[in-house]
Write a structure and sequence with these properties.
single chain; mainly beta; seven-stranded mixed β-sheet; four-stranded antiparallel β-sheet
Length: about 130
């Protein structure tokens, strides 16, 4: 069965850094589009970064230049390095996977179309 297990997260001061990870089982990360989303109470889930099957990244404008998405296919693991964190980055962060080869063409941030999700991890940034 497909599973995504997240680790990392926590609380940091504004300007600090965190790295979160997502380890997949039941499939190979080189065959899926992989991404990170976040959600706060009362807000629609927001796409923040994805990698397509060719390892091309896309970023939301709100995190561009501060966050870096990467993956290690040998470890079947996706990462999100978060630098220069701001209080508005506070959210529950989720990793997601989609087997569609043309996910980026169809819409990289259409979260409702991703079939597989991690359990979520809280990131809190204090001012």
């Amino acid at each position: 069965q497909v599973q995504l297990v997240q680790s990392g997260g926590g609380s940091v001061q504004a300007g600090g850094s965190l790295r979160i990870s997502c380890t997949a089982s039941g499939f190979s990360t080189d065959d899926y589009c992989m991404g990170w989303f976040r959600q706060t109470p009362g807000r629609v889930r927001e796409g923040i970064a994805t990698l397509d099957v060719n390892n091309k990244p896309l970023y939301a404008d709100s995190v561009k230049g501060r966050f870096t998405i990467s993956k290690d296919n040998a470890k079947n693991t996706l990462y999100l390095q978060m630098n220069s964190l701001k209080p508005e980055d506070t959210a529950m962060y989720y990793c997601a996977a989609d087997p569609l080869l043309d996910r980026h063409r169809l819409g990289w941030d259409r979260f409702w179309e991703y079939p597989y999700w991690g359990q979520g991890t809280q990131v809190t940034v204090s001012s």
